[in-house]
Amino acid sequence: MIEKLVFNRKRREALERARARREREDGFARLRDAVPGLETLRLEVTVYEADRPIAEATHIRQVVVDHAPALFEIPCTDRLCEDGRHVLTDDVLRGLRTGRERFEGAATCSGSGRNGSRGCTRVLKYVAIAGYRQAP
Question: Which of 21, 65, 16, 15 is nearest to 41 (CA)?
Answer without folding.
Answer: 65
